[in-house]
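Can anyone check this?
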Amino acid sequence: MAFNDDSFIREVNEELRSDQVKGAWRRFGRYLIALAVLIVLGTIGYKVYEYWDDNQSSGTGDKFIAAMKLADENKNDEALAALETLEKEGHGAYPILARLRAASVLAQKGDTAGAVAAFDLIGKDNAAPAAVRDAAKIRAGWLLIEGGTYDQVSAHVEEMAVPGNAFRHSAREALGLAAYKAGNIAQARQWYQAIADDAQSPRNVANRAQMMLDNITASGKAPAAQG
């Protein structure tokens, strides 16, 4: 199913306006997550790249790139072995970047619980740069949207859903999706409205938030935002 197919968007709109919130999530939740996660990964990638770029003089850079190539080719076990070596023997930024990439490979393999646990460890590691810790928390939160609870998602990302935080757009969208999935439509509206009210929200994020706000309003499930 193409994400940009007008018929798909219309079907999502109709389903979201119905009284079957949980049914809508079952049918379209993974597609909404897939659409949103692209910009989440882009934001994380940019922040982590900045950190990597500042440390690329290390002689282990080629090994890190080779490990990423293995992951991109879905040679997950080989990638994990290479990344584990970098965690132990790498210099400069590479051990923490290897841990971050290894957690992503676990998610890629379908080991969501293992990936969340790995991202959690990075997010709590005060020796890691703040941007890397925040990236790990965001990634864990997004992994928990489909299989976890709102409180679990919130515990990972809500501290970043504040003005001035570089990850606030991704954090707010994760919270909006988690609240919607949980059937707490009023809370979902609040998070989507925070995105809509932020002039710096990326266009794709703002567009998705506005679509959800329009459908929540049309469904009559939550009171209109107070001006």
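Reply from J.R.: I decoded it. Residues 69 and 75 are 9 Å apart (CA to CA).
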